[in-house]
Write a structure and sequence with these properties.
alpha/beta, Alpha-Beta Plaits, eight-stranded mixed β-barrel, five-stranded mixed beta sheet, 20 strands, binds ligand C2E, binds calcium ion
Amino acid sequence: MRSMRASAFIRLVTALLAVLAIDLLFFRTLNPLLLAGWSILLALSLSYSHRSVLRGDFIERKTVSVTELRRMQLHALPSALLWSAALIYLSQTAALDDLILFYSVVLLLLVSCATLVAAVPLASIILVGTISIAATIAFILQGSVAMAACSAGIGLLLTFAALQSARHYVSAHLAQIHLNEKSETVSLLLREFEDSGADWLWQIDTARRVTRVSPRFAFALGKDASDIDGMPLLQLVSGDAWQSGNFPPALHELAEKLNRREAFSNMLVPVRIGDRQLWWELSASPRIGEDGSFMGFRGVGSDVTTEQESQEKISHLARFDTLTGLPNRLQLTEALGQAMAESDKWRSRCCFLMIDLDRFKAVNDTLGHPMGDRLLSQVSKRLRGIMSDNELCGRLGGDEFAVVVKDGSDSAYVAQLADRIIDALSRPYEVDQHTLFIGASVGTAIGPRDGHTVEMLMRSADLALYRSKDAGGGAHTWYKPSLHADAEERRVMEMELRKALERGELHLQYQPVVDAVDYTVTGFEALLRWTSAKFGPVSPGKFIPLAEDARLIGPIGEWVLQQACRDAVQFPDMVKMAVNVSVDQLTMPNYLDTVRSALSISGLPTRRLELEVTESIFVRGGMAEKMLSEILDLGVKLSLDDFGTGYSSLGYLRKSRFDTIKVDRSFVQGAAKDVPESIAIIRAVVALADSLGMATTAEGVETEDELRMVQRLGCKKIQGFYFGRPMDFADAKALFSSGGSGLIDAA
Ligand code: C2E
Ligand code: CA
Ligand code: CA
């Protein structure tokens, strides 16, 4: 349409000139009125089509429909018909010479039309076709076959030419559009390039030496453009590796691509410039000369160090533990997933070792978290030192670590590994001039045998670990299916225990403690009993730890204390009441009030109450120890229970004003069997207790031999089945009513 408009004026002028020429040439020969009428009609039709091309409403539009375009071209029809009519008319009225003269003018018009309106051949074809046909007919009517053939031939030729030039026009136009688009994109890219400032162009020759170094590229390399021109690209970016030949993999890949003359885009390569490690993103394609020869590479590059570093930092944070630098839970589970997939594939086995530190909480509580953190770092260092290529160790969180053993088919090896871990982690630690003693427990599950999914395997290892902890720590346990059942039982039992107090399923038994010389009952130890509706009688060895874990020990312990005090007032005045207290209770802030109110409600004199605590309170640290001294200030007595089974530090004996040290049953048994260590320990305890003004109670005396032995070793009080089993309150009270003296017949 645009091309039609562009040529509209010249077409109009040519057509009018042709009309004018006809008028001048024929105004004598032809009827002037007819000629004038014809000329006016033609001029009108021409101006009409001219106006419609120039004034149409499509001018402002970008597109024109095909029908619109066709209609526009049909405007050529009236003038074509007028010319044709004139030719036919002439053939009837004028001589052949006149007709030929007329045709010559028409021919001028046809040629101009066929060449000028290249974009829209239809208009030319209508004009050329109609008029040529009319001319041919006119010549035939005149009887000039030669001229007829000539006009027909010219008509065909011109039609063909019109089509041809239209085709050329269109393809040239399309090429132009394409070119425009291209140059627009290029300039856009270039503009962006200039603006961002971070990118540069680079170029190398066939020998991979940089050429025509741009200032930006030189700046990126931290050098002068003139210094580096002609230097090998790899030498410029590889730093020391250029000498050693020890290239990072990405640089290898780059060299490979350059070697193979392959284009590449956004390739991330590590770059060493001076002592700085940078990351570049390079894109390039081979340069091919006009003759098709390879000329090197040309491309762009940008420095993506900051993005890359933050990317690395983020992915590192996501996969590693910040404190210890070990793989974190995420990475461990991934590694375990892989190990399990491998095991499935090769029908082998992998292992998951779960590690928990023993007594870590005590360090954290007593010495503070920063110290705990430093200890954990040391633990992780030792752990890492034990690992081989077959293992991956990491931190699950808190004081929990884990090891994934990729090939765990050799269970002896895994057992050894677990022992090595326990050994290594249990050696003393030096942290800020403190010597710290912690231990480690390990639970191991074998995949896929002990769990088909990562979660199941981890849970199995966790159960095994729990068993190790439960057994007192420092141990390694293999998972076995019964652990699952145990765990389930524990869960149900915990639920039952929650309701035990309100259901009245708890009661106390009292075991007498007698004087080692005259066997009089000096006191009782209150021992808790639970007769569960579901499980029957449950041993305190089982449900007390459960109550501690489930945070039920507070209310349960309070009930025990109140009940024991209430019962104690009914015993003779010189009889003491010993109540077991777990460490968890001592760290409860309101425990002192609990003791006070138990005493005041029952009316038991303070001196008759004795609280039994174990050595673990000293490991638990400050808070519990402070509570002890406050209890002592009330006037309540304290005894140290199970001495010898825990940390057995004689130093602990000095730490608090204990009234009594209770020597554990294992030493009593050992001493009776003449085990030298047992005898030595009882001797030492007795000696120290004597010098500090404390009494010693031998626990668990069952036989006469044991009795004689502990008497000889100097224990002041004795407790055990030999003198009496734990009994119900009524039986305990009866001990005094029968003989009235409370004396138990040792024989
Ligand atoms: P414990 O404080 O060392 O209590 C002594 C345990 O030794 C009792 O076991 C008692 O029945 C047993 N025993 C006494 N004489 C003999 C003997 O001659 N031979 C043998 N083989 N055993 C003897 P029990 O009642 O099963 O209590 C176990 C542990 O449960 C207690 O050890 C104590 O640590 C804890 N416990 C019991 N009642 C309570 C309580 O009310 N509160 C707290 N926190 N712990 C309690
Ligand atoms: Ca006890
Ligand atoms: Ca005991």
